[in-house]
Amino acid sequence: MYKKYLIVLFMITMFSTVKAQFLMDLVDTSTDIGKGMLAIYKKFDNIKIGGYIQPQFQAIQLKGGKSFNGGDFAINQNNRFMLRRGRIRFDYIHFAEIKGPSVQFVFQFDGTERGVFIRDFWGRILENKYKVFALTAGMFARPFSYELNLSSSDRESPERGRMSQILMKTERDMGAMISFEPRFKSHPLRYLKMDAGLFNGQGLAATADFDSHKDFISRIALKPYPIGKKIQLSMGASYLNGGMLQNTKYVYTNTTNSAGKTFVVDSSSANLGKIAPRKYYGIDAQLKFKTKAGFTELRAELMSGKQTATAGSSETPGALLTGQEGYYVRKFNGAYFYLLHNIFSRHHQLGIKYDWYDPNTNVKGLDIGKSGTSINATNIKYNTLGFGYINYINDNLKLVLWYEKITNEKTQIAGFTQDVKDDVFTCRLQFRF
């Protein structure tokens, strides 16, 4: 009997509500088994299971190339098969009587040949008097940037830009957030969405928080707004004000001396216990035109600000520094631009994406690696031009063919005096349910 219950439970959770209801219509609820099945159905009717996998083949110009397209290649490798993502997500919504949904929680895991990791573990309380507010707590995507919050299953390019990956690794963080988003169509502010929250700051770069300082992150957005019958406009502005505890007295900032632009250290004992700054500003816009074949879409996003990191990376540290290490404070900027266009039908799409990330706007090209200075390869600006073809074969299967030409600044550092050969081609299939 228990086997029968388990089979029904699996079938119900794997189908949509309509299909599950169809199955229940076939059950004889006058019997004990039928009544048990009905009880299981009512209990798990609010659960939705979804997911996707992304097997892919990649090739890079030189063996052992460094890459932001799924990680660096092995030292003797210039092509590979890999499972980029393997996600499974569980959503549960509890509906309060009459008033509608009141509680939602989500679990999402990512499993590949490299291991199994959590991605989303959060709960949300929905306010039902005015139906405009919600409180979210747990591990979830930071409310910053359009690209960071666009699902990897929906994004046209294989990966987010270099800037997004470096500044906000894995996109998620532990925290709590209040949202304003009207949930009924007649509300005068139905196209407006606002989020604001406090987060640990290091995201999934660390297994636990390492100081008491929290990042404040907010975003205000205009949801897709119709301009006539064939045009939709959406846009947003994001802000992050955060940092981390300075457990060392050594803080490096940019200056200029007789040799050129370099870093200078401030080793005052007063630096101990201060907060090393992280401040990001972002604006984005998306413009979508309806065509005979489907849509043409333009997207753009610009980010700038101040990042505190280390000598060897502009990525947010996953732990407090040790020994004689010091914090490096740099001004940065970056952007991306998309042009997407359906050809023949909505199943066929061409895409072009250009993005750049400059981790240190105070230095340029030949300033980097100059004798007598301390400007290393961490400060190199990168430009990426990506283009490709996406075939939406059906609702559950997508093919992506994408090539990225990556260009770095020419510097005085050995290995970076010319453009590094690190262009990448990706062929990906996405299976989704």
Primary descriptors:
single chain; 433 residues; mainly beta; 16-stranded antiparallel barrel; 18 strands; globular; disordered N terminus
Please give a structural write-up.
The chain is mainly β and 433 residues long. It folds into two domains: 1-45, no CATH class; 46-432, Porin (Beta Barrel), CATH 2.40.160. 10% of the residues lie in helices and 50% in strands. The chain contains five helices and 18 strands. The protein has helices at residues 2-14, 17-25, 32-44, 146-149, 162-167, and strands at 47-60, 79-96, 100-112, 115-126, 133-141, 172-180, 192-199, 215-227, 231-245, 251-257, 260-266, 275-290, 295-309, 327-342, 348-358, 382-394, 397-408, 424-432. A 16-stranded antiparallel β-barrel has the order 1-2-3-4-5-6-7-8-9-12-13-14-15-16-17-18. The chain starts with a helix and ends with a strand.
- What is the approximate shape? globular
- How does the major sheet shape up? 16 strands, antiparallel, barrel
The CATH topology label of the largest domain is Porin
Radius of gyration: 25 Å
Record the strand order, biggest sheet.
1-2-3-4-5-6-7-8-9-12-13-14-15-16-17-18
